[in-house]
User: Which sequence fits this backbone?
């Protein structure tokens, strides 16, 4: 990293970081309201369509260690940029009216999202060392808020335009994110080589019972969240609610 490289302002980083965060759940949460259309257009069963929210989660588990290794050689900012290209490619691959394109594209989306899941909190800590709570709060708020808005918007759009058009419109957020993220590459930092004597004596997480309990807790939490996210639109549809109709309890 050249020390003379121009620095990105704090406000610009926060804005571009929030755009990345906006895409860390959105490509998944827009799918449930579209399942009926997907099943009809591609002639696939409900059980197979339900995998569209499961595949990204499997990608999270498989690629997280790989992304960490890549970031050590490429730098966090560059790694996110590279993997977000995969996210955009996967998002638009899903527009092709073929089953293989839908599922392969969804897998690429999961891999792309995982780069932000793994690296964005570390970048926030690096770029906002005195404002970590603020950065983390904006990151979490944006990720969840845009996911919720995207779910509602996909349900509305599918009643107005085709499935392909709905996916195309909602995938523009990924393009917008990578455009504004690009200048952050100027501040990319690769991990420096650390002497073995300087590495703290950490215990392996694989042998810590508390670590497994925490993993189980968050795993069950995600199971509940994504199960409701996937099947609640289908349940409401079976009760004759339209995708764009308000739900009155």
Assistant:
């Amino acid at each position: 990293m050249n020390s003379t490289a121009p620095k990105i302002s704090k406000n610009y980083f926060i804005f571009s970081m929030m755009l990345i965060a906006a895409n860390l759940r959105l490509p998944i949460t827009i799918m449930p309201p579209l399942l009926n259309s997907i099943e009809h257009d591609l002639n696939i069963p409900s059980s197979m369509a339900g995998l569209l929210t499961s595949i990204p989660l499997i990608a999270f588990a498989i690629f997280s260690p790989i992304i960490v290794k890549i970031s050590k050689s490429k730098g966090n900012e560059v790694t996110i940029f590279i993997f977000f290209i995969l996210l955009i490619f996967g998002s638009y691959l899903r527009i092709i009216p073929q089953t293989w394109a839908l599922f392969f594209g969804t897998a690429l989306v999961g891999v792309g999202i995982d780069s932000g899941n793994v690296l964005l909190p570390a970048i926030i800590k690096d770029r906002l060392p005195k404002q970590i709570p603020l950065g983390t709060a904006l990151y979490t708020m944006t990720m969840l808020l845009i996911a919720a808005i995207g779910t509602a918007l996909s349900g509305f759009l599918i009643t107005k335009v085709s499935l392909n058009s709905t996916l195309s419109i909602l995938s523009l957020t990924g393009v917008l994110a990578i455009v504004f993220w690009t200048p952050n590459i100027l501040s990319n930092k690769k991990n420096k080589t650390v002497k073995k004597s300087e590495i703290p004596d950490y215990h392996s997480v694989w042998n810590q019972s508390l670590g497994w309990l925490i993993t189980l807790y968050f795993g069950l939490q995600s199971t509940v969240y994504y199960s409701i996210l996937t099947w609640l639109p289908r349940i409401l549809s079976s009760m004759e609610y339209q995708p764009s109709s308000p739900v009155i309890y």
Observations:
- Residues 39 and 48 are 9 Å apart (CA to CA).
- The domain at 10-191 is CATH 1.20.1250.20 (Growth Hormone; Chain: A;).
- The mean pLDDT is 85.
- The chain has one domain: 10-191.
